[in-house]
Amino acid sequence: MTRSLLARFAASSALVAALVAPAGADVPEAISKEILPGYQAFAAASETLAEAARQDCSAEALRGPWNAAFDAWMGVAHLRLGPVEDQGRALAIAFWPDPKATGARKQREMIEAADPALLEPGALAQASVAARGLFGLGRLLHGEMENGVPYVCDLRRALAEDMARMAGEIVTDWGPYSELLLSAGAEGNTTFLNPEEARQALFTQLISGLEFNADQRLGRPLGSFDKPRPERAEALPAQRARADVALSLAALKALAGALAQGVGDIPKTEAAFDRALAQADWPEDPAFAAVADPGGRLKVEILQQSIRLARDAALEELGGLLGVSAGFNAADGD
Amino acid sequence: MQRRAFLASLAAATALPRASWADAGSPAYLAAAADGAGAYFLCGISAAGARLFSLPMPGRGHAATAHPTRPEAVAFARRPGTFALVIDCASGTTSARLTPPEGRQFNGHGAYSADGAVLFTSEVVAEGSEGRVGVWDAARGYQRIGEFASGGIGPHEILRLPGSETLVIANGGIQTDPSDRTPLNLDRMRPNLAYLSPEGALLEQVELPELWQNSIRHLGIASDGLVAFAMQWQGDLMEPVPLLGLHRRGEAPILCDPAPEEIFAMKGYAGSVAFAPGGQEVAITSPRGGRVQAFSRKGDPLWSVARADICGLGPCTEGGFVATDGQGLVARLDQGALHPLERDSLSWDNHLVSLL
Fold first, then answer.
1. Identity of the residue in B232, B260, B326 whose CB atom sits nearest the CB atom of A328
2. Cβ B28 vs Cβ B354: under 8 Å
3. Residue A101, class by beta-carbon neighbours within 10 Å (0-12 exposed, 13-18 middle, 19+ buried)?
4. Do B308 and A334 touch (CB under 8 A)?
5. Is the whole model's pTM more than 0.90, yes or no?
6. ipTM here
7. CATH number, domain A3-182, options 1.20.1420.20, 3.20.140.10, 3.40.50.300, 3.90.110.10
8. What is the CATH number of domain A195-322?
9. Does domain B3-354 have CATH number 1.25.40.20?
10. Do A329 and B239 touch (CB under 8 A)?
11. If pLDDT is split at 50, 70 and 90, which confidence band does A149 have?
């Protein structure tokens, strides 16, 4: 993380500290204890990755820092509101799932064109989101696109810089965005018209985050009983899909705890999270290859069910405490 | 219709000077709503976003359609609908209750003929979801006087083209279980946009063969007859598809692709669609994505607004749009900015029906 970025983050932290109510309840707690530190960690890991690429852009040198940045992203990947939604950043950082393999196609085009202009600082910001970020860089570190072509090495460096830039911008922009969440209901705040809306917004991140783990991270490789799709596991060549679920669940459990802070206890939700976390821990099956085998498949299905039970528990218990629910229209389409 | 209600409406129609929409407080919009205790209402909303009246409904509503001259609206139940209520918005009373014939279900939307003498309702045959348009005599107590095929499976919104008696209907293509809303045919659905004469002749039909899993469900119409159709994607949610199409009779449809950073923002779901006054801008809402996306009438993306659970959408007299959400907000949307007008204690349901 650069000095200026640290300075900006310190400024936004101070601002948040000033706005936090003394009781430190729900929304301020979630922002100061989970969201801002999570983005700070991701920005730091992305900067470490970019710095490593400046020194040595070989695949061997970058796999470690890339995995560390991916780990850090799992701490915040469920947050789909605010700065990460601006300029398509969330997609540019993690373009997955990608059912039509758009990322690989765009990336092959980039490498074939070998346009030096794309390597200039800031140029990748205009490129396809599908070819960038953790998944774009990951393809150049594992498997068929990992090769000795100098342009690929330079592209790794440029992709790492692009992601570090976005991570830094998200940290910076969360300063004013925190203010919007914390000043919900104040005159002129048209984003959050009262404190319930701010609580609702963060609660929604928790619920959709759980659903993403169950429906996408597990649901895609599970496919159907007749047609399991282990090749659809997240970041397959890096063999980290199961670790991603565990990291995401841990971050979501912490977010649930922060939202309950000062409001009440959520024993059922916490127990449901612990059960899912215990089931996620199966090092012998790092990328859900087990879905193709009936016994292994059952274990993955049980994990999926446990994640859905954690969602149900959070909806009932935490939703009740916070006085929020799934959206009236969003939950029931027509 | 109950005999007593029939006599009452007959008496009202003959004995009193004819009421107009001014007697209902001149609402600019109608919307279904719910309170926190599980009660449902049909409400009138002023141009400034204030609730003018709220009439109790026996169950969750969906959309409504307003009589062209009388202060009378038909509020439709959420599908599979077993009732529609003809509501006298001036007196706040129910003047008729429409019940679909045996084996038919209302699908949440309806439209009047230009003179208001006939009401057309979007319906399905309960078994198989084949589409029907129910025909009701709105001049004489809402007797059912006929029905004809809608031109597809699972029709949803129906509108009448301005200055014409031609109906346009969104045949969503989804067959559902007759007892609930479970979809049964997502792997072989065939939605279409159909134009029908008021006698039921199929005049024109538009299909999108490459987007056959994109259920065409909601409609908006500009005064020159340009039809906007909003879709709900039943395929892989990670596959970005356009959710808005524009069609003029006799021409090829235009599909509206969002800006690249917006391709997943709607979560594959558009809940309502409307043109702004003048018909130069058209927008779709997604309560699932918490997003409104606006496009030009040529199909180019213009702006977007983020707002949780937003769904109801209509034109704003001052330009741009008015939108409603599940948190009770009525807001004006203009050039990518959201201006809150009123915040109600009720949750606004899917649709905002413009009376403008």
1. B326
2. yes
3. exposed
4. no
5. no
6. 0.76
7. 1.20.1420.20
8. 1.20.120
9. no
10. no
11. confident
